[in-house]
Amino acid sequence: MASNFGLCAKVNDKTVVKAPDWVYVPSVLPAEPGEVRRSYTRNAEGEVPAVVMEFLSDTDGSEYSNKPTYPYGKLRFYERILEIPIYVIFEPKS
Length: 94
Known about the structure:
Mean pLDDT: 88
Order of helices and strands: EEEEHEHE
């Protein structure tokens, strides 16, 4: 489990990074002693994150973005590019 952790992918020779508010990758290897793990790359490390959670933003609603071109929308990136099975958008006010 991690928060504000970069999820990375290479798409059409461009590196795409999104930092969900919370992510769970079941079998990720721990960081080396003294190091802080700040990102995860499915293409290099293999396992699909099981859950991604975003807290709904008051300003832009980008959590629902399905923008199909670079920079990809969050929904498209998590659902289509990384193929994350559970994407949660949390509305803290309700």
